Please model this.
Amino acid sequence: MSLHVTVLPGDGIGPEVTDAALRVLAAVCEAENIGLRTETRHFGGAAIDATGEPLPEETKEACLSADAVLLGAVGGPKWDEAAKSGAPRPEKGLLGIRSAMGLFANLRPSRLFAGLENASPLRPERVAGTDILVVRELTGGVYFGAKEEGTDRATDLMPYSREEVERVARVAFEAAKGRRGRLTSVDKANVLATSRLWRSVIEDLSGDYPEVTVDHVLVDAMAMHLVTHPADFDVVVTENLFGDILSDELSAVVGSIGLAASASLGEPGRPGLYEPIHGSAPDIAGRGIANPAGSILSVALLLRHSAGQEAAASHIERAVSAVLEQGLRTADLGGSASTEAFTEAVLEALTAS
Ligand code: NAD
Ligand code: IPM
Ligand code: MN
Model:
């Protein structure tokens, strides 16, 4: 088997964690006899500096023609500043590539790793057993609706079509079927028209999945439930912005945003995109202390969803889990291990198991 991965390191800690993840990917591919070919492209702020645009055509082409894309993170204060005088934003490149690749389903798993009970801001007995998959709609809603931006008035529209809701909902139902059979659909149906559409699509589909139990929860209450009884949830499906916010909350509940991986998927057979859910972390960039686990675990998702290599994927997940269980911690988890030390430990755990 051979695997062609386009790599978009991006900005801030993006290149640091992507480097770590690529070392792990290369080691696993070698051990499993998977031929790996990678090509690196400009993206985000780095691409603005090099070419004037956050998503150059050549980068887009390299993503569309790969088996999968591994992305670091984009953005930073330098480009926020430049955007005030009309320069493009790095984040526009991220939305652009998600849209160009048709990545409507963003899977964001969060589970409590053994040994991390005390890294959660919640009491250990509250967080114990937490294992949630957030399925976030990724190419619709307020991120992509029409915008007007004036100095005294601005608008962001939040459109959703039945078809857009249905295709991401099916991904969530299927995921729930393969897990504990519980689906929580999160919306704001007491206020938003799009949420009432969302709810009715979920209801209509639920007949096709008799083995899945469905609940509807309003997003404000969900933000609370995730810190009071997170272990009670299995799969959570929600629209783009709610999913963005709730998945950051959940990542902290199980220890740190530095651990959270994601897979962004479109139609079957199309390339997927894999990235940690965190950003470019300008506050710690360039110091070699970023937690690479979110990126390393994203590589595991890449092997699972874009290469069908379940054994290699779970091998990486077990290695990360073992390193955390041994007590090795980067700064975000209260430790002092460097990015390099953590990565070395994962590489060692891979050969040990
Ligand atoms: P952030 O996720 O970059 O950082 C939030 C906090 O978490 C910071 O204190 C940071 O140090 C910490 N953190 C994040 N990842 C970490 C890791 N791997 N190891 C240790 N600590 C980590 O969010 P922000 O500060 O709100 O945003 C910074 C920039 O990143 C902005 O320009 C934003 O637009 C961008 N951003 C990009 C993405 C992406 O590329 N997918 C995602 C989120 C934010
Ligand atoms: C994420 C980020 C992005 C989002 C931003 C940087 C556009 O927060 O990947 O979670 O909101 O989707
Ligand atoms: Mn986010």
